[in-house]
Amino acid sequence: MSDKKLKEVNYMNEIVIVTPSELHGLIKNKLEKAGLKSEHADEVAKHLVFADSCGIHSHGAVRVDYYAERIAKKGVTIEPKLSFEKTGPCTGIFHGDNGIGQYVANEALKYAIDMAKENGVAVVGVERLSHSGTMAYYLNKITDNDLIGLTVCQSDPMVVPYGGREPYYGTNPIGFGAPASEGLPIIFDMATSVQAWGKILDARSKNVEIPDTWAVDRKGVPTTNPHDVGALLPISGPKGYGLMMMVDVLSGVMLGVPFGGHVSSMYDKMSEGRDLGHTFILIDPGKFTDINKFKENITRTKEELHKIKPAEGFQQVFYPGETSQIIYEKYQKEGIPVEKGIYEYLISDIVHYNKFGGQSAFASKK
Ligand code: NAI
Predict the structure, then answer these.
(1) What is the pLDDT of residue 203?
(2) What is the largest CA-CA distance in the chain?
(3) End-to-end CA, the chain
(4) Residue 191 CA, ligand 1 centroid: distance in Å
(5) Active-site residue, from 131, 227, 278, 306
(6) Ligand 1 centroid – CA 187 distance (Å)
(7) Residue ranges for the chain with pLDDT beneath 50
(8) Among 164, 184, 196, 320, which is most buried by a count of CB atoms within 10 Å?
(9) CB distance 277 to ligand 1 below 6 Å
(10) Known active-site residue 352
(11) pLDDT given for residue 58 in this prediction
């Protein structure tokens, strides 16, 4: 089906269906117009198209307007001085110089993969980068190399600690991936808040209500209006709170970058670098067991999970990452749905809407 036909069919639903290559071109072009180098814009576009292709719309094209504004206002280093400092046989720090997050993290990951293949383990910290997107993108590259991956990064303070009414930690994501002998890897990837902040942005862009378990308003009261959100809630109370602390220690305190409540706000000080941290922990399972046996047993795990009888109201048990993989296959064939307002921005001459600087992370124009 041609691109044109896809758009005609779906415009009625306020959704535009675009091919992955068209979406990539539009995002890359917009980021280049904002001032990003072609190579960097290309990598960010690949990353965002991947997120939208997996149905992770919170980390796809919805972010372009924000990235374009931060780039245009010099809150991202256009010519970052990137360097890898090996600090031990299995450890290293990648200096990101506040380059665009997806590009910087992807460059750091190349060193981590080489190190893990050579030594069996690699712990690589990435210091000073901007928002690094969805962890699943990196996990797929890690598992493609027959490695297990655990990756975490900081996010700006917007989640109330258990028992508190003011935000302290970010939505600090945790991603874990393991390769399989048959089919796709297991990719577990989540925010440690009930929902990622991008899901609030997604709800705002669609102007739809959110469940009252996701967030609180400025008085600390649960809200269903995405425009009223004052802070997010951690998953499972004190347990999610503990996990977001773990992420902050591994990707913030350990890397010597601002931590906890000191992490910069995504939507404030748009002309300054974010100074975020991101950490990759890679393990070669072949150093512990036979690699083929390991991958076969991951496949077996997936098969055994599929055989578990579904609970009432469920059609089947999926392994982590599987629903995204199903969506990915579908969108590769049928095209990716993009919210109409985002599509219209992408095809317009507008570089960005100048709507973020100086605002609270939670501010909404609506
Ligand atoms: P989510 O709630 O959509 O999914 C969490 C996990 O549950 C995934 O591994 C998913 O595959 C799995 N899952 C979903 N439905 C399932 C089912 N029916 N059966 C089995 N497993 C299932 O993810 P969340 O928490 O909304 O995070 C979205 C994205 O946001 C992630 O990619 C994360 O990396 C990213 N993120 C990035 C941040 C950053 O600052 N860079 C901050 C926070 C999140």
Answers:
(1) 87
(2) 57
(3) 37
(4) 6
(5) 131
(6) 9
(7) 1-12
(8) 196
(9) no
(10) no
(11) 87
